[in-house]
Each structure stands twice: as C-alpha cells, then as structure tokens.
Predict the structure.
Amino acid sequence: MPKLCTSTLQDARMDAPPDTSTPGPRTRSKEREEVSFTLMSRVIDSNDPSTAQEALQSKAWKDAMDFEYQLVMKNNNWQLVDIPLGNKPIGCRWIFKTKYKENGTMDKYKARLVVKG
C-alpha cells in the first residue's frame, strides 16, 4: 500500500462516532430582481423537397433551381475539366428551403447547389 494511503488510514479515528449532524434549512435571499421577457416562436409547416426529383415536380421549385444554376454559370463558379488519373470526382446536391418574411408570409423558394463532402 502506498505511504499516503497508509498514513491516511492510520490517522483516521475508527472509534469516533459517525457525523450525524445535518445542515440547517436552506434560505433564499429575500431581495429579488424582477425580470420580464417574452418568448416568441413560430411554427411553420414547411414541406421543402429533400431531393431534386421531388423539387422538379413543382414549377416554383424548378424555377428556383433554374435561377440558381444561371447564377452559378454567370459567376463562373465551376469549370468542367477532365478527371485526373487516380482521382474521383466530388458530387453535388441540391438544398431546398422556403424563405419567409418577418411577418410570416412566404417570401421565395430558395434552391442551392452545393458540393458534397
């Protein structure tokens, strides 16, 4: 047994009665600062498509996809190149989100083309 443990055990009084005292009741400060706040939440039933196939079923989502694609092409965000030997291409996917105004009315359908990984 290590010395620290041995000396601790030797120093303990085995014949002393266990401590049965309990602390007094907890008291709280009588002075409280009143704080008021308002919580707001909005539940919106959004049925945003999870795949491009679902989105293509709706003209509004197809228009949003066309708009995003035109922006990608206009801004030269990608360039089509041959895949170098030994490399794999990185995939992409569509993300769909319905955007709302502050008053809760629908603002627009937003489609984003993003890179996987």
In short: The chain is about 25% helix and 15% strand. The mean pLDDT is 82. The radius of gyration is 33 Å. Strands lie at 92-100, 106-115.
